[in-house]
Amino acid sequence: MNAFQNKKLIFIFLSLIIGIGTIFLIFYNKKSSLPSPEKEKEKIEQVTQQTLDKEIEKEFGKDYKISSLTFYENNTWAVAILKPISFQAEGATIIYKKEGEGWKIFLGPGTSFEDSTPDLLNQLPPQVKKAIGLEQ
Fold first, then answer.
1. Same domain, 4 and 25
2. In this structure, is residue 107 part of a structural domain?
3. What CATH code is carried by the domain that includes residue 124?
4. pLDDT digits over 59-92, tens only?
5. Does residue 84 contact residue 64 with C-beta atoms inside 8 Å?
6. Do the domain assignments include residue 77?
7. Is residue 45 within 8 Å of residue 75, measured between CB atoms?
8. Which domain range does residue 14 map to?
9. What's phi and psi for 68, nearest 5 deg?
């Protein structure tokens, strides 16, 4: 091989390395800029809590707020603990069900649901029943 062929091979080799490196950097940047499933879930839950806080204010006034909110069944059910702001009292539980783009109160507010209509209780997912103390 002469010097020209060696330079040509070195040029091709370096071009391949640079090309592969560029592709890797582009792919890595796109992949790392995508939100993680955990961050997406967090964002959905934060927006939902803000929405439910507004609903609580409309329904019960500014004296109450959600102190705890837990989601179940792929974010289609939520159990919220509602507490008064201006006085001390036990929290009340509200069970929400997602319907379309919005949330509806399915049961509550209340502190016990054992005496609720059996038809409604039968619709609750097992995780929600457990969360409100209806199942072990």
1. yes
2. yes
3. 3.10.450
4. 877 888 888 889 999 889 999 998 888 888 888 8
5. yes
6. yes
7. yes
8. 1-34
9. -150, 140
